[in-house]
Design goal:
alpha/beta; 8-stranded mixed sheet; 6-stranded mixed sheet; 17 helices; globular
């Protein structure tokens, strides 16, 4: 990259931060007041529209009586969810405005409550059914959102959403609405943050297969409520996530869905503030089943959101993130192969590069800055920089050859008057197979390094192997790029353990040894969101480690392996491409609504993006 390009990149980053900060400042009165928010567990009776509307109005009265100022209710709360086809659902659809809003608005006007709730909506003009959430307050209907991330059950009865991701400015804060399976795709929450949301309200009926279901019939087992931590952690927003509990039975088909609860509220730093119990299957009476509340100041999200978004690099995302990628993409690995993955764990302090050896055919990922001791200052790291082909790359290549395997590490690379944080893959022949210059730098790394200008995926006998640094994984766009490029494995050398761990309730996991409380959150989320295997070598500090192997479906299928105290390496053998259970990378790519992702690739200083952010609702004017 030339000095002019580098200067322009710096200006773009500064402009991004300034534009977001100015936007937050200009809207300073919004969300400054502390409010009590609640995730509400509400159980509808299947196919009882009028009865559910009455019960919902009663529930809203009770929630307001508890001093709640904004309440989020579950998905399809006035119809139920489990319908076999459009004709079966049709009698229980409602319009907006309609019966539900007519019953609720007087309650909201009288109590001052704001609420959003999921409705199976019939569009009055087209007759199409949408899985919709509507936001209402004391002054009427604020806006609605139609679900974009449709799962197989949704697709039986609902049309794809037409609203895009919108942010509604209210006296209590700026609110975006999402629904259940939307959180399978990181892009929707990111669009909400990019548009200035302070709160994401997530409405769900997060279902599980019934206990005892034969494995061959349980491949659809998944848990959308187990995804909600990422919406807050990656985007710097409050998340109020409401799902339901109980068992829903379709009396016509006999089909059953089990909802295991777990409604939760999360801070802009990705910390869980309150959560409903995760419960076993039980048939519950219809109506209000629980109110889970806490107090927040919505505007406290503004600084955190600005910091998270400032690391974006839209110049790297265009046009890939706005392209429709065929699920039969020719770039994808087609032949299944068995691969051995390993992540090195080193104690905090000196480098152990001299003793690092992969096993034959194995991929071994070392901690970052692999030839240097941990804890160096920016000046010291920069002083240790060396050119390509220097002592570090030679040592890495020699170790890979000695072990007849693949070895990944990183170092400060000097190129003219610039320094980069460069990740290197060396192969069993003793040669460098690929290099990647870190593109999404933290403030600490930016103190000594310049950003690189492209992602890197290398075809190897192990599969398509992508490179990153551990600290970059908090930026979901990078994982999104590698998913779109159909990487099978992401090797990401890390440093010391991250403070934010997986805080998802261990009871939501179907796998043995859930990662709750022990695994760094960002690599865990990145592997799942991109549907690939992620390997990070890292340091151990006290009881925490950054060394781990993260699978594409950590809730119901693949393990999350972190190095134990005293271990020098953690190993796992698996298959690539990952076959998946309820989803895999091929299905993930095919399910993306790329037309909605145009704002993700716009430059931060573009007039079109500025207008899209300011207007809050509607499509980009230049799309």
């Amino acid at each position: 990259m030339s000095w002019k390009s580098w200067a322009l990149a710096i200006v773009a980053v500064i402009a991004c931060g300034l534009s977001l900060a100015v936007g937050a400042s200009a809207q300073a009165p919004v969300g400054q007041k502390q409010i009590k928010v609640a995730a509400v567990d509400f159980v509808p009776a299947w196919g009882d529209l009028d009865g559910n509307v009455a019960r919902l109005a009663k529930a809203a009265e009770e929630v307001a009586r508890q001093g709640v100022e904004y309440a989020v209710f579950p998905e399809t709360a006035v119809s139920g969810y489990l319908f076999s086809g459009p004709k079966q659902l049709a009698p229980f659809l409602d319009t907006i405005p309609g019966k539900t809003t007519a019953a609720l608005l007087p309650v909201l006007q009288r109590t001052g409550l704001y609420m959003s709730v999921g409705i199976a909506e019939r569009d009055a003009a087209t007759g199409l059914a949408y899985n919709t959430a509507v936001l209402m307050g004391p002054n009427g209907i604020v806006g609605k959102y139609r679900k974009n991330g449709l799962n197989p059950q949704d697709q039986k009865v609902f049309a794809p959403g037409t609203t895009g991701v919108e942010v509604f400015e209210t006296p209590i804060g700026r609110i975006a609405l999402l629904i259940c399976y939307d959180d399978t795709y990181w892009q929707y929450a990111r669009l909400a943050a990019l548009r200035g949301a302070q709160i994401i309200a997530w409405h769900s009926v997060s279902d599980r297969v019934m206990p005892g279901t034969p494995p061959a019939e349980a491949t659809g087992n998944h848990s959308t409520v187990s995804n909600v931590q990422y919406m807050s952690a990656q985007n710097g927003v409050w998340v109020v996530g409401a799902t339901r509990s109980g068992v829903e039975t379709n009396p016509i088909t006999g089909g059953k869905l089990y909802y295991n609860g777990g409604s939760s509220i999360w801070s802009p730093k990705g910390e869980k503030l309150v959560q409903a119990p995760v419960v076993p299957p039980e048939t519950l009476p219809p109506g209000l089943a629980g109110v889970f509340a806490t107090s927040i100041v919505p505007a406290e999200a503004d600084a955190e959101r600005t910091a998270q978004l400032a690391r974006r690099r839209p110049d790297l995302y265009v046009p890939l993130m706005a392209l429709h990628r065929s699920p039969t993409d020719g770039n994808a690995t087609t032949s299944v192969r068995s691969v051995a993955l390993s992540a090195a764990q080193w104690p905090d302090g000196s480098s152990l590069l001299s003793s690092a050896r992969p096993e034959a055919g194995e991929l071994l990922v070392l901690p970052e800055l692999s030839a240097l001791p941990s804890g160096l200052s920016a000046a010291d790291i920069k002083a240790k920089a060396e050119a390509r082909g220097g002592a570090f790359e030679q040592a890495l290549s020699a170790s890979a050859k000695a072990g007849s395997g693949y070895l990944v590490g990183s170092y400060p690379e000097r190129d003219g008057d610039r320094t980069y944080h460069t990740v290197v893959l060396a192969g069993p022949a003793g040669s460098v197979l690929g290099r990647y210059r870190a593109t999404h730098l933290s403030a600490a790394t930016a103190a000594w390094a310049s950003p690189g200008d492209e992602p890197v995926v290398i075809d190897t006998p192990l599969g398509r192997l992508a490179l990153a640094t551990g600290e970059e994984l908090r930026v979901p766009e990078l994982g999104g790029l590698y998913g779109a490029l159909r990487a099978d494995i992401l090797a990401a050398p890390a440093g010391r353990p991250e403070p934010l761990k997986v805080q998802i309730d261990a009871k939501l996991f179907a796998v043995n040894d859930p990662p709750t409380g022990r695994a760094d959150f960002f690599p865990y989320a990145s592997a799942k969101q991109a549907q690939l295997w992620l390997v990070s070598g890292g340091r151990r500090v006290g009881n925490a480690t950054a060394a781990g192997i993260y699978g594409p479906e950590p809730v119901v299928d693949t393990p999350t392996l972190t190095a134990a105290a005293g271990e020098t390496v953690v190993r796992y053998r698996t298959r690539v491409p990952a076959p998946g259970t309820w989803i895999n990378q091929q299905q993930l790519i095919g399910g993306q609504q790329s037309l909605l992702f145009v704002p993700l690739v716009m430059k931060d200083d573009s007039d079109c993006l500025k207008q899209w952010r300011t207007q809050g609702t509607g499509a980009p004017p230049c799309r």
